[in-house]
Structure formats: C-alpha cells, structure tokens
C-alpha cells in the first residue's frame, strides 16, 4: 500500500509540474474593454485626419519641372503627327501616358489643365470610335490649345543641352555637336 501511495504521489507531482500556471497578460488589443478600444480608434482617426494636409504639399512644381514636362512629353505628343494623319489609332493610344503626364506636369493653370484633359478625352473618344477625322480634329485642337510643336535640332548653332537637369538630355533634341 505504501508503494502504491508513493507512486500515486509521484504521478501527481509530475503532473502538477507540467500544468499551466496562471499568468497576468499585458494589455493588448486582444484583451481590452470597449472604452479602451473606442479611445484607441478615435485617436487613430484623429491622427489620420491630419495626414491629408501633408499629402497635398506639392513642392516639386517649379518652372524647371514644367519646362521639362512640356519638353519631353510635348515632343512625344508632337511626334504623333504622322500616326494621326495615317489614322494609326494604336500608335496614338500607346502614347496615352504622354498625354496624362503632359496634362499633369506641363500645365499649371487649372482652367487650361481642365481644357487639356477635355482635349485628351476627345482624342481617346475618337480612338475608341475609330473615327480618323475626329482624331485629326481633336489632335489639332489639342496641339494648338497647348502650344505643342516639334523642336528641330540645328547642329550648326552649338550644343543642345548643358547639364543633366536640362529637359533635352537623353532626348533627340539634346544632341551635342562634337568636332
């Protein structure tokens, strides 16, 4: 009897060694009351409500960036003249990003920007309708309203650009005459 009591006592001691001990958990999102959760959500919402003011800061708009957008994307748009005259809708549609980037970066006046967006929409409406006449008219109106023309490089008058910040760098207009 003494041996069976000793064995039972040994099993009980070993079982209690592996039993989980009650531990006080730290306050987390899993064990908070409603008031604490509502307070935390309200604080987060107040912080997020102040962030859009930071996102509206547009310090990248300067005369140089406008000139760069007008130069690079304006030349891509002006280069579509042959495709428009030939009725190549795919070539014009492939330059959709040039129109978008020209409208957003090359135009600073809000009224002119809305006109340019309307002109872009007219161009792509003509592409969707497969109407070559409407495409020519919309493209011509867009170019004249935004003063877009092809810039030709005259190699006899010197270099085409002077630094990497110039918009003509890495474009066909940026050729440098070297003797």
TrEMBL record:
Keywords: Signal. InterPro entries: PSII_Pbs31. Residues 1-17 form the signal peptide. Gene3D superfamilies: Sodium ion translocating NADH-quinone reductase subunit C-like. The keyword Signal applies. Pfam families: PSII_Pbs31 (PF18240). Residues 60-148 form the Photosystem II Psb31 protein domain. This is Photosystem II Psb31 protein. It comes from Skeletonema marinoi.
